[in-house]
Model the fold of this input.
Amino acid sequence: MFLFIFSCSSEKEENIVASFKDNTLSIEEVYKHLIPNVVDTNIFVDEYINTWLKNQVMLDKAFIYISENDMEIERKVKEYKEELLIHKYQNELVNNEFDTTISYQEVIDYYNHYTHNFILNQNILKCKLIIFEKDIPNKKEIEKKIQAKTTSELDDLLNYCQLYANIYHLNDSNWVVMSDVLQKLPENIAIKKLVRSRNKIHSFTDEEFAYYLFVKDYQIKGNQSPLSFELSKIRNLLQNKKKIQYLEKIEDELYRNALSSGKIKIYK
Done:
């Protein structure tokens, strides 16, 4: 921890939290680098100051051996600055002008064309999972409710879970990774037991809780991965592909415009 002694002579000096020779660090500069949702601001500030001071010491020693006007360093700084500027401009184009829309048909076409690439490397489930205190009453009622299908039945189930359940997952329309479900169940639950049949209720207990798992559907590792499970991945992939094509098109248009306007000259 650093002990900071602030001078009262001016507001500027009061904001200085560290210095090395003629270089100073203000609290405003530290907060510019504050990480979002940081757990402990004081720890972050102390660590930032410590890192800044170490860098200042290293820079001071480096300037003894390496010229500040070193041509290689200047070249790399120039290249890095240019890359940052281009990257920021590209981000502005993508955020403000690029159409991110990917149609469902585009996703289907890609999935069908590259079916061989979509093989499951893990087991997946469509399921409902509800975890209650072990002594929950009306257990038979739970087994009935967990099979809910209609909107009114699902609303009733949700209300019930909000009142009594410790943990619940009720969306059995989407695929989930089986290992994520197993982490919430008692230890030593055999995978084979969960993938024996579809539309089946499994119940387990341990010293504290009662677990109810309704397996609507499942797919086993090594099988063809369902389109619905790959939907988000394919959409992101196609968006990235479109983004690259869009930026290449912009780059090509700018180059051709500069060439036709005589701004570009090539000397041979």
Notes: Residues 227-260 form the longest helix (34 residues). Residues 104-114+225-260 form one domain. The first strand starts at residue 16 and ends at 20.
